[in-house]
Each structure stands twice: as structure tokens, then as C-alpha cells.
Design a protein that fits this description.
The protein has 424 residues and is α/β, with parallel strands linked by helices. Helices cover 34% and strands 17% of the residues. It has helices at residues 16-19, 73-82, 135-148, 164-176, 199-202, 205-218, 235-243, 287-304, 321-329, 339-344, 348-363, 382-401, 414-419; strands at residues 4-8, 36-40, 51-53, 56-58, 62-64, 86-88, 106-110, 121-126, 153-158, 181-185, 223-226, 248-251, 255-257, 260-261, 268-269, 279-282, 311-315, 334-337. The radius of gyration is 25 Å and the shape is globular. Flavin mononucleotide is lined by residues 65-68, 90-91, 124, 126, 128, 130, 157, 185, 188, 226, 253-254, 282-283, 286, 315-318, 337-340.
């Protein structure tokens, strides 16, 4: 016999399943008494994590975000073997010889007193550029991966200078390698903007519109535009990208940052020959900022593109299934992880899948679509919050007041009227 799991519902503690209008599935025991839903858990099917995004089928929504975890054949193969839903390779460009990295190029922020070395890593700055490997080498590896893993989703990340012919050549060559989709890096905040690339395009809507026009006229596979958070209103470039034909938006890339100043040497970190340059901030500390940006884009997409053809890939500080669930509750179709893999390894995907399934079981969700976007409706303006609170206070006062006089008792509202004057 199936074991019974009880879950208290009602009042201010209603579950997301409840507010999202989900019913008990057929075969489950109906509610036995008011305030409790009785769930049969023993015979419940495992939640289905698979998603289909712009026609691309993935076993789960977890995608390797562009960066070190997608730098070469060996690590991308490892990602597929461990079970990642898709892999986005490190950003490539036509002329890798122009890309010259420095070391050290990372600096970490730890929680705890005075950034104690034992503190948990919560922030990660990098001044790494895009891939410094020859394009031809990367393309060969993409081809080999697609031959060996034909059913898995491989996405190329690309970036070029402000030159239509260069973008067209890059798209053409990348597509010939057999990748399933392309993500455009309009968002790297350091190094590349000096060549009018990356965030330099993503921060300038007129430039973005022109470049997206070139890209979408050329590309024959789905295109995602990766947005920079280093802009006042992220919905503006996201809207431009979708309007000019991109199938999806990814957000966020890293946040412009200075990790710190060494108080002994007075030099900034990460320190290269005594000097530094602002870099990109990622990891747990950026998650709340990423949630806000993803929420804004999701609201814009819901009001202007409420369909399954335009998709949203959320990125920023994901290390748990709960972090991913938050993004999906805001409307994300997929969830990317970059720094989390650098800290915990490729096996992290197993923990992410297990934790996301746990969350789904807790709420009786069978598929990702059952809860995608369910929390978006609870974001409103501050003015609206004030009005809602004033109304709630007014109602609470009215209830507390009870009846002014015995003549106010009614037949229909008799029970409620009695309750309104009870003190416990
Ligand atoms: C070391 C490092 C290198 C990165 N390189 C790229 C890149 O080449 N292209 C890109 O689009 N994003 C790049 N990113 C950004 C990540 O893909 C991601 O958008 C960002 O780090 C936030 O997600 P996270 O907190 O999961 O890392 C890089 C991030 C890090 C930490």
C-alpha cells in the first residue's frame, strides 16, 4: 500500500502547487479533511526533468554556461558523461591569436570574519578573456563531440568585432561543425569591450540591433543572445535581441567588479605584475542580482512574447537545485552553471537534478512546465504593495471589530460573524 504524505495547505502558507492551480493527479486519495491534502507518495512517478527548448530536447534543464567548463573536447565530453542537459562551449572568435590571457586571472571572496581562508566562497571575479584556442581546433572538437554524442545538445558561444563579414564567416563555420544552437556573447565586461566586442555591443541598443540583424539573417540554427547585467535596464537589449529574430535570451553574464585591495601591498586583486583591471563577478553572491534581472526579462517576455518559441536561459550563482527552481519559477526554460562547476566539478549536475526533483515532489509537480513562471505573478510595484497592505489592514480591523450591535447579525453570515468575535 502506498504510504501517505500529508502536507498542510491554506492561509498564507499555500504551496506553489496550490496557487499555480495544480490538481491532485488521478488515482491519488482525495482530500480527507479541510486544510490537508493527502498525497499517495509510494506509487508516485519520478518527476520528469526533461525540457524542449527552441526544438532542442534536453534530459534536464541544466546547461554548462560558457567559460572554463566548456573549453575543450575533454571537459565537454565529461559534462555529457556526467549528465548535463546541454553544454555551451567557451566563447570563440575568428582570430584567437588576438586573445592573450594573463595569470592570475581569478580572485575569490570568502564569507566570514575578515574574509578568513576557511570561509565559504561566495564570490568569484575573473579577468579571463574568450577562448585563446584556434577556431579551427575548437570546430574540430565540436564536430567530434556531435559525432560521438549525436543526441546531446552542444551550443557554440561566439563573439566578433563590429564587422558584418566577420560575423557571417564565424556563424557559417560554427554551423558547419554541427552545433545545435549558437549563443552570442554580447556581455563579457572586461578586455573584449576594448575591441568594441562583448558588453560594448550589449550595452548599446543601436549597435546591438544592427549586429543582431546581421546574425539573424545568416544563422540557420536557434540563436540565444547573452545579456550583460552592467546596464540600467536589461529589458531594453533583451527586447532588441528578440525583436531582431533571436529565439532566446540568456542572462546574466558577470557583473563588473573589483574584488579587493590587498591591505599589505596596497595592490588590487587579481594582481598581475602589481596591477589589475576590473573584471566579471560571479558565483553565489550574484544570484539575487541575477534573479532580479531574469525576473525583469521574464516579465517583458510574458507581456510581449508569451509563447514557447522565445526562451529564457537563466544564469548566476547556481549551486543547488533550489537555486535553479527559483529561476524556473520566474520563467526560465533552462539554467546555466559556470562557476559552480569550477568549484564543485561536473558531478554537481547529479546533485542539482536530485534536489530539483525533491522540490518538485514536495509540490506534486510532474514536469518543469508545471511550475515554470509560477512566481512571476507575485512581483508588482511598490505602490501596489502599499495599496495591498492598506487593504489588508482595513480588512483585519473590520474583522477584529466584530458586530457593532445585535441588530447586525445576519442569517447567511452567522458563522463568520460569530468567529469575528472569538478571541482564540
Ligand atoms: C572564469 C570565467 C570565464 C567565463 N568566460 C565566459 C565566456 O567565455 N563567455 C561567456 O559568455 N561567459 C563567460 N563567463 C560567464 C559565465 O558563463 C556566467 O554567465 C557567469 O559567470 C555567471 O554564472 P555563474 O555564477 O554560474 O558563474 C565566464 C565566467 C567565468 C567565471
Amino acid at each position: 500500500m502506498a504510504s501517505l504524505g500529508m502536507k498542510q495547505l491554506g492561509g498564507g502558507n499555500r504551496s506553489v502547487a496550490d496557487v499555480a492551480g495544480l490538481r491532485c493527479r488521478p488515482g491519488l486519495t482525495p482530500p480527507s479533511r479541510v486544510g490537508f491534502r493527502v498525497l499517495a507518495s509510494g506509487d508516485r512517478a519520478e518527476p520528469d526533468l526533461s525540457v524542449t527548448v527552441n526544438g532542442l530536447h534536453m534530459p534536464n534543464p541544466f546547461v554548462i554556461g560558457s567559460g572554463p567548463p566548456g573549453t575543450n573536447y575533454t571537459v565537454m565530453r565529461r559534462a555529457f558523461d556526467e549528465g548535463w542537459g546541454a553544454v555551451i562551449a567557451k566563447t570563440v572568435s575568428l582570430e584567437a591569436e588576438k586573445v592573450i590571457n594573463v595569470t592570475p586571472r581569478y580572485a575569490r571572496l570568502r564569507a566570514g570574519v575578515n574574509g578568513s581562508a576557511k570561509g565559504q566562497i561566495i564570490g568569484w571575479e575573473n579577468i579571463e578573456l574568450i577562448s585563446d584556442r584556434p577556431l579551427e581546433t575548437m570546430l574540430k572538437e565540436f564536430k567530434q563531440l556531435k559525432e560521438e554524442y549525436p543526441d546531446r545538445i552542444l551550443i557554440a558561444s561566439i563573439m566578433e568585432e563590429y564587422n558584418k563579414a566577420a560575423w557571417e564567416e564565424l556563424i557559417d563555420r560554427v554551423e558547419q561543425s554541427g552545433v545545435d544552437a549558437i549563443e552570442i556573447n554580447f556581455s563579457c565586461p572586461h578586455g573584449m569591450p576594448e575591441r568594441k566586442m562583448g558588453a560594448a555591443v550589449g550595452q548599446d541598443c543601436a549597435l546591438l540591433e544592427e549586429v543582431c540583424g546581421w546574425i539573424n539573417a545568416k544563422a540557420t540554427v536557434p540563436v540565444w543572445a547573452k545579456m550583460t547585467p552592467n546596464i540600467t535596464d536589461i529589458t531594453q537589449p533583451a527586447r532588441v535581441a528578440l525583436r531582431t529574430g533571436c529565439e532566446g535570451v540568456s542572462a546574466i553574464n558577470t557583473i563588473m567588479s573589483v574584488m579587493g585591495i590587498n591591505l599589505d601591498t596596497l595592490r588590487p586583486e587579481p594582481c598581475v605584475e602589481g596591477y589589475s583591471t576590473p573584471g566579471g563577478y560571479s558565483s553565489k553572491a550574484v544570484h539575487p542580482i541575477a534573479l532580479a534581472k531574469v525576473m525583469s526579462i521574464a516579465k517583458m517576455m510574458k507581456s510581449e512574447y508569451d509563447d514557447k518559441d522565445h526562451t529564457l536561459s537563466a544564469i548566476g550563482g547556481v549551486e543547488t537545485g533550489g537555486d535553479a527552481a527559483e529561476f524556473i519559477l520566474l520563467g526560465a526554460d533552462t539554467v546555466q552553471v559556470c562557476t559552480g562547476v569550477m568549484m564543485h566539478g561536473y558531478g554537481l549536475v547529479k546533485k542539482l537534478c536530485a534536489e530539483l526533483k525533491e522540490f518538485m515532489k514536495m509540490h506534486n509537480f510532474s514536469t518543469i512546465e508545471d511550475f515554470r513562471g509560477a512566481s512571476l505573478q507575485y512581483f508588482t510595484t511598490h505602490t501596489d504593495l502599499v495599496q495591498r497592505q492598506q487593504e489588508a489592514i482595513r480588512q483585519r480591523k473590520a474583522i477584529r471589530k466584530g458586530l457593532q450591535s445585535d441588530k447586525d447579525w445576519t442569517g447567511d453570515g452567522f458563522v463568520k460573524e460569530s468567529e469575528s468575535m472569538v478571541s482564540n
